[in-house]
């Protein structure tokens, strides 16, 4: 089943509506922020792996490279929705931005 948000005119705010999955378990729809956070975290973990594979550096060095890259501010901007791109695309973009920086 699909979850939806409904507006309450009397209370003036949105309510999460829950539905039940195929096993009868009640589920709530994640918020946009929760989805963005999950996808950003996933992309970051993949970027770190790519840096380690390409350079042979340690996880700490790879994390430093990723977190200090010019890509980070754009990736963390939820409104820009860059986190929706594949980690492979983001890695290529990170490399291009690093060359220009």
Give the number of helices.
Answer: 4
The string of secondary-structure elements, in order, is EEEEHHHH
Q: Biggest sheet: strands, sense, closure?
A: 2 strands, antiparallel
The assigned structural class equals alpha+beta
Report the portion of residues in β strands.
Answer: 5-15%
Number of beta-strand segments: 4
Silhouette = elongated
Structurally, how many domains make up the residues? 2
Query: Considering DSSP H and I runs of 4 or more, what fraction of the residues is helical?
Result: 40-55%
* Spatial order of strands in the largest sheet: 1-2
Task: Report the C-alpha radius of gyration, rounded.
Answer: 19 Å
State the end-to-end CA separation.
47 Å
- Low-confidence parts: 1-15
What does this protein structure show overall?
This protein has helices at residues 32-55, 59-67, 71-76, 87-100; strands spanning 5-8, 13-16, 18-20, 26-28. A two-stranded antiparallel sheet has the order 1-2. A two-stranded antiparallel ribbon has the order 3-4. The chain is built from four helices and four strands. The chain has 101 residues and is α+β, with helices and mostly antiparallel strands. The protein is elongated, with a radius of gyration of 19 Å. 15% of the residues are buried. Mean pLDDT is 83; it is low at 1-15. Helices cover 52% and strands 14% of the residues. The protein folds into two domains: 1-30, no CATH class; 32-100, no CATH class. A hairpin with a 5-residue loop joins β3 (18-20) and β4.
